[in-house]
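Sanity check

After download, print the first record. It should look like this:
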Amino acid sequence: MRVCGMVRNSGEPGGGPFLTYNTDGTVSLQILESSQINTAEETYAKMFRSGTHFNPVDLVCAVKDYRGRPFCLPEFVDKSTGFISLKSKNGRELKALELPGLWNGAMSDWNTVFVEVPLATFNPVKTVNDLLREQHQ
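Expected structure tokens:
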């Protein structure tokens, strides 16, 4: 089980909560990054732009079963959720293959609940300039 604390979307870069279709036809709650959305498809782009909540601020996960035995976490990875993102190093733009991360694919088929948490709990650091914000002083 995982509980994802989400904040209201305030225009920060990144992803948000979505219902996704698995290859077996089931639906699961997942957090998708913007680079996972096919924005060339207007329907998908519109859904992404109209999202009301943003990436998890807090993530609480049960990694053991009711008997205290650890789950085999690699069994829950959806290997088809890798994606290409744009990064930069030394001023040079790069494309990076990102494998499923903690929220976007590595936790596929977990029992998931999205919970709204106060915006004050959200202090992102996506760029070095974010460290200049008041909450990081």
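If your output differs, re-run the checksum step. Summary of this record's structure: The radius of gyration is 16 Å.
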